[in-house]
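Fold it.
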Amino acid sequence: METSTARSIVRARIGAGLAVTILLLPFGGYGLAQTGAVPEGAPVALVPLSEIVGFILLTALREERAPFQHSSTRLTANTLTGERSVDLNRIATVRLVTTFSYGSVYRTLVVRDAHGVRLGITSERSRRKVRRAVEKADSNAARGVPGPRVSRAARAHLGLAPGQGLAVHTVLAFLLLTAPGSLYVAVVLRLGGQ
């Protein structure tokens, strides 16, 4: 189990590195344009593709895909970087990631266990398993056993807290997605002299 966990973490880091590399392509293109190796407009042409592919890849790397395997203590699913398995008895954190596309809101619960494995939960069945695991951890916490850190928005999405935290989270997620994207485009255009 330890070797599969370690391999899962390494594959996840390689995938994240690839996504970051894609996001940095326009900056590399700018350096090449300064040396005359590529035309001056090349970095600007890379911006839309790099931004879209990089940001989508970063969010999609950890999301569960079929086939799923559920047991009372584990959630196992395929992701873009291979199979990941989260220990439900040793959950360390649960947070909610919200993205937007074509007027729709997409929510992913990101569960990290004590081994460092992260899995993005998108299916209803997996969400129910995580909810039961968090409820069990909360009841153990009442007896003095430390439980996982669960964000307010994740608790609201799981139905364990009032939904007010979800509305605030959605607004903040929208702002935190649009501001860096706009800044990224502005910086690359500025470097490209546009």
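Helices lie at 2-35, 42-60, 124-141, 152-158, 164-191.
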